[in-house]
């Protein structure tokens, strides 16, 4: 089976968007996933929404390399943020040719958060953008069930759920629930691995998420069961690891991340084929 891969910006966050595109092309990716708003005060802010020079350069690199934009991030609808304030973000994402937007709902008022998510979906629809709700365990939408409640309440055609294998594991979300969801809700998946043992603090969970993820198959997350529960969609490799970036450099690290992910899927597909062969042999005996 052929799989498509995107280089998530968090994996090499020190790159500008044009540099991210170049690295993705040289390493062999199909897409990039671009961060257009900072998540922390320490992050570099790549202002594609307002910086026309940066936008023009990024689009030129995309055209030159053939790399596509899978998604842009991040819209965080906190208590002070109205969806209408994100219109410029949506316009910039559409200009880049993005397929989707990542959103989070760090708002304790669930009714307000759900209403704003619905309005964001409506604003994104004319741009042919999906809005994909992510559920980091430290936010007010802390697990798959909370995200599903929002999607069911808004009932929008362009609303989706973003499964990040790390967040799914750390939130102890339900595989049974995951298997019950409509296939149309899944537009892409964040793929990574991490130690099986959960950190003892929120700070530890966030540190792993931002700076110490592993390549698929290296850690203790049951990635295979997660992926067996969802449709086949593109995989955005969000695998930040400060130690390895320092050791290998950004390009080589991105290349190794893709190589490890392809190897993981080759092993998984071979395992599935072996299981099918054993079943057929048993039936024919």
- Measured as a percent range, the helix fraction is 40-55%
Write the CATH architecture name.
Alpha-Beta Barrel
Q: In whole angstroms, how far apart are the ends?
A: 29 Å
**Uncertain spans:** none
User: What is the total number of structural domains?
Assistant: 1
SSE run: EHEHEHEHEHEHHEHHEHH
- Helix-strand makeup class: alpha/beta
Query: What would the CATH topology be?
Result: TIM Barrel
Total strand segments: 8
Q: Give the helix tally.
A: 11
Q: Widest sheet: strand order?
A: 1-2-3-4-5-6-7-8
Largest sheet: 8 strands, parallel, barrel
Domain Xylose isomerase-like TIM barrel: 21-262
InterPro entries: IolE/XylAMocC-like, Xyl_isomerase-like_sf, Xyl_isomerase-like_TIM-brl
Protein name: Sugar phosphate isomerase/epimerase
Organism: Desulforhopalus singaporensis
What does this structure look like?
With 285 residues, the chain is α/β, with parallel strands linked by helices. The chain has a single domain (5-284), classed as Alpha-Beta Barrel (TIM Barrel). Helix content is 46%, strand content 14%. The protein contains 11 helices and 8 strands. Helix 1 (17-27) runs parallel beside helix 2 (52-65), helix 1 crosses helix 11 and helix 10 crosses helix 11 (250-284). The protein is globular.
